[in-house]
Amino acid sequence: MTPRLKRNIYRILPFGVIWLIFGVIFLTVEYAATRDYQYTTKGAIKLDFTVVAFALTAVTIVGCLIGTIELLFMNRLFSKASFAITVLGKFVIYSLFLFLIIGITYPIAVSIELNSSIANEQIWNKFSDFLGSITFLSTGFQMMISLIVTLFYNEISEKIGANSFLNFVTGKYHRPQVEQRIFMFIDMKSSTTLAEQLGHIKYFRLLRFYYGVLSESIIDYSGEVYQYVGDEMVITWELKKGISNNNCIHCFFKMKEDLIAKQDWFNKHYGVCPEFKGSLHTGEVVTGEIGTLKKDLIFTGDTLNTASRIQGLCNEVSAELLVSSHMMAKLKLEETFESESLGLQDLKGKKKEIEVFRVRKKNQIATNTQKKEK
Fold first, then answer.
1. pLDDT exceeds 70 at position 200
2. What angle do CA 225, 231, 236 make, to 5 degrees?
């Protein structure tokens, strides 16, 4: 299973779980309220084990379908729309979708109740009665509540990240924990000059698209975005995920390739294609929730400071990617990569020197040599 597929599954499953939980709640309330007269209630279905099992399975599948639609289609469809247009558009689309779901699942549930073929005329007569009953309005209301909660969940998880949201809910980092993590600091080259040339608004639009391009590789190589700080991005991995198949190294160079692939687009819209430099370091950090007015999940420790300082050396030593000796000791680079020790380096604000390595792809080295010869 690829990291991207696994990520999408983990993001979609909570939609199904939310719909399942609300399905259990609504069915329990409905059964308690109508058990003495459910046979005479217009459009009502007798609740037995088979019907309930079908209903709960159906709402779980509906939740997963909505999660799939929301994450894979809706986010793109309304990415440039205003908040009001987004809300109205989603309301209309999901209302039609839920009506279609009711039109499919209700006749099936009745056929289970009557133990009859779905072509039975009695089933469709009951469906017609159901559409004009209070039961239909109740079902629609229940579905809209489930929909609102899942969309609310989606908005929160999009803002703070699905993993962070899950950690907040489970209380994983309510008490600080010590972890071994990898950090990559990415910094755009000549960003100040670029911002002055483009102006604040146009530069912001460039940044937004630039981060969007880089994000694809982060997903593919199991990384997480920890912070955006202006034109700087901090990416992190759990140690095991980051060193597996050299994910953290491949991520950096795949981001480079993705950016080059969009070079013509950037040149057309902004007259320049941004470039970046980066650093990789690993070590212990303390992870926990912090804040009173606003809760946030943060990493603290010398590891981040060191990674940032190493990234600051890139210009001095003309390197695109610098990797600490601590990080290199965890990696087993393939033949496509070449590393070169730059010796012990003085890092600003640190007493001890640290050995750093320049890491490059071999085809990149050949390309740079050809450019120099020309």
1. yes
2. 20
